[in-house]
Amino acid sequence: MTRAWIWPILLVLCGSAVATGLTFSGSPSAAAAFLLVFVLLAGVNSPLIFPESIGEQEAQRRSAVDGRPVVFWRPGCMYCLRLRIRLGRSAHQLHWVDIWRDPAGAAAVRAVNDGNETVPTVVVAGKPHTNPDPEWVRERLSPSA
């Protein structure tokens, strides 16, 4: 779990250090703006922007019941972030698996991506798709979801 927070914490710490330097050099407004940018970047790269992550086995079970796609992702991945943002509210209809929190999820991703943890990997009807277009994923959502 701590692995998912390393990047956001580093962003906040670096932004704080630079903002402190700017404050001491007499630019408090620039320091505040700089810190705000780094805090926003940290928030976007944190697990908070994504729907609640579940385990790989639970996601596969739920997907078999309701037919919704399973998305394997990890914090800090810009392609995962792109998918999440472009899906908008539809993102909550998917089953999200954080591969940094779930070793079985990471193993499932490696199994379909030649041993690499390439994300986002979206599984639709049992077939994996690596880094698909967000519009394509949206089309695969069941109408009843």
Topology of helices and strands:
Layout: H1 2-24, H2 28-44, H3 56-66, E1 70-73, H4 78-87, E2 95-98, H5 103-112, E3 121-124, E4 127-130, H6 134-140
Parallel strand pairs: 1-2
Antiparallel strand pairs: 1-3, 3-4
Organism: Streptomyces bingchenggensis (strain BCW-1)
InterPro entries: Glutaredoxin, Thioredoxin-like_sf
Signal peptide: 1-19
Task: Explain what you see.
This protein is an alpha+beta fold and 145 residues long. The protein folds into two domains: 2-48; 51-140, Glutaredoxin. Helices cover 54% and strands 11% of the residues. The chain has six helices and four strands; from the N terminus they run H-H-H-E-H-E-H-E-E-H. It has a four-stranded mixed sheet with strand order 2-1-3-4. A hairpin with a 2-residue loop joins strand 3 and strand 4 (127-130). 30% of the residues are buried.
- Amino-to-carboxy terminus distance: 29 Å
Number of domains: 2
Mean pLDDT: 88
Which overall shape is indicated by the principal axes computed on the Cα atoms?
elongated
Spatial arrangement of strands, main beta sheet? 2-1-3-4
The total beta strand count reads 4
Number of helices: 6
State the fourth-level CATH superfamily of the largest domain.
Glutaredoxin
Q: What is the helix fraction of residues, given as a range? A: 40-55%
SSE topology string: HHHEHEHEEH
CATH fold naming of the largest domain: Glutaredoxin
Major sheet description: 4 strands, mixed
Which structural category do the helix and sheet elements fall into?
alpha+beta
State the CATH architecture of the largest domain.
Answer: 3-Layer(aba) Sandwich
Pfam families: Glutaredoxin (PF00462)
Organism: Streptomyces bingchenggensis (strain BCW-1)
Keywords: Membrane, Signal, Transmembrane, Transmembrane helix
Protein name: Integral membrane protein
